[in-house]
Amino acid sequence: MASQWSQLELESWLPPTLTALMGVLTTTILLTSVLLFLRRLYRRVRYPRGDRTAVEFALNRERLFNHTLIEANPAFVVAISPEGEVLRMNEAMLTALGYSRDEVLGRDYLSTFVPPQDQPRVREILHRLIHVQGMTHSETSLVTRDGRVLWVAWHGRSVRQWPQGRCEFIVGIGNDITDRQRTIQALATAEAKYRSIFENAIEGIFQISPEGYYLSANPALATILGYDSPEHLIRTLDNIDRQLYVDSSRRAKLLRLLQTQKVVSGFEAEVYRRDGSVVWISEDVRAVRNDHGVLLYYEGSVVDITERKRTEQRLRYNASHDELTGLWNRGWFLSQLERSLRRSRRHQEYRFALLFLDLDNFKGVNDSLGHVVGDRLLLEIAQRLELCLRPGDALARLGGDEFTILMENIRDLEEAIELAKRLQQCLQDPLHVENHRIFTQVSIGIAPGDPSHQQPQDLLQDADIALYRAKKQKPDAGYVLFDRTMRSETVRRLQLETDLRGAMKRNELNVVYQPIVSLESLTVIGFEALVRWRHPQYGNISPSEFIPISEESGSIQALGAWVLRTAGYQLQHWQQTVLGCDRLSMSINLSGKQLSPAFIEQLDTLLAETHLDGQTLKLEITETALMEDVDTAIGLLEQIQQRHVVLCLDDFGTGYCSLNYLHRFPIQILKLDRSFIERLFNGDGQPPIVQAIVNLAQHLQIKTIAEGIENLQQLQYLQDLGCHYGQGYWFSRPLESHAAEEILHKQFDPKALAS
Fold it and tell me: pTM here?
């Protein structure tokens, strides 16, 4: 078919066809069409029809012009035969496809230049152009020589013979729209991606009109607000200010912020869900405006922060409340106390008081019934205490079994005292905990508000000092009111506790010895070793003061071990150097805090080093110390007895030892407390308690020692009862070791001793 058409004929058909096609293309193609028309008009005017030479000349010029027009055109131009062969292709298209002219002429257009997936559609377009007269507009792809794909927007029409109307060839003019197509595809991809993000985001995404209704919403927002779908949400919420926000002022504040800020982030508010429940949300919102600054809509995202808010509330609650009882905790209470102190400095008429409470014997409940019962007991006590408070009083648990109460706006301290009495009264009845009936009381320290305190801890310390005094003194009322002298005593006590730890190294401690006399023969049979402390600042410190300090601070073990060793070696010295003292005994006081396996080791070491007969060594321990842990105490006492060391129960009758335990404790001597001896001849005469104790000991075959004998009448009475041993100022005060040794050298002269 291509051979039937000469180049001249093809070019004579192409210009008018191109002119028609280019009429629908760009401005450049329109201008080309105008130029072509003017060119023909010029030729017809200049050359008459009869002049053949002129006509040939014109045709040649027209052919050259048309060739230039086709080849110089930046658009793609292609001519295709009805059989699908390429008849012509302009330079722009050849360059884009990467072929030379000879390589494309006569080639099958579809198989060479059209991708397989596009071939059916292009074949249909060509078929329509062959059989239907008219013009087509389409966008198809081309494959370049190196495999790249170009997108082209085509305008095509068929060229037909006249007058038969048979299609001679098809002409297509196209523009390369590859960049545009890529842009469109990128936009489509981005839109699909955005749509996917919009639809699948876990955050709620929205657009809201300036009037306050939703323009768009994603499924996540519908879920957060409890609606079935975004459409349901948009239909239902037509007034966000009124229907959505719990506090409409929050919405108003958000809009005010958007007037001055481009974006508002992390804006928190409470909103209603569809079912009426309330959730917390956090919004990121921006106002969208046109180029003239006119507000178009608001857009942003929403996150449900309800769980975070609940967690924050729990954390705030836990930060200020006691986990077990639900009362205020130490941190919150101190902050309130600090506020009261500041207020008292500003307002002289403002008065407040602090009560510090501690349960009596709570450790015994924990040890005997377990911590679960102990915790339940604390909970029950907290509930009872709350019933006693005035409106506005703050009750807190500091920890363990310690409670505090802050009383504000009181007239005077009588109100605090009245509250202390009510607290004592409300705890008189037993508490029923885990099938146990538990009686408990509290010791209370009361401290008046003092504006001079700089820190709330100072006021708490005052109340603690008063509480300590209440627990030690056991007043009938159960409470102690703080005064400033207590603070100086506490400072002294802390100073003594510190100094006591180094007293042995500084040789401030000394052991003195008080004779123990046989009341039958009035001879010295032994001594009681007593520790004394001469403080460089305070002078002589009473053992009744520093021994309890040593027990509470934990230094009693070291102190007791030192006394045991000092007195033991002194006994060894006297037994070996003083004539007739080979059976002399030494009584040494043993604190309940010392009664441990470590003490057994210390005792073994002393006996091994000194070779003392254990029967000449007597250990005195109070019944109160033994009752702290009866089973453990019995086991350790039995180990001591196995070493033939004599055990003496000190201060018998002043504690709460059951007589039944006298059978269980391996006790060999009972020591009558000096308080019984002092009252022998006071008031009503001879109290029967001393006689009862001596008789009891005789029936149990236990020997007795009476301490505190200070006159002849007491001595004779005890002798008549059959008391075995005695000590006291009637015989001798505690003596330094050299003075005690002088007594031993007097060959036990009872007359000299009694005088």
Answer: 0.56
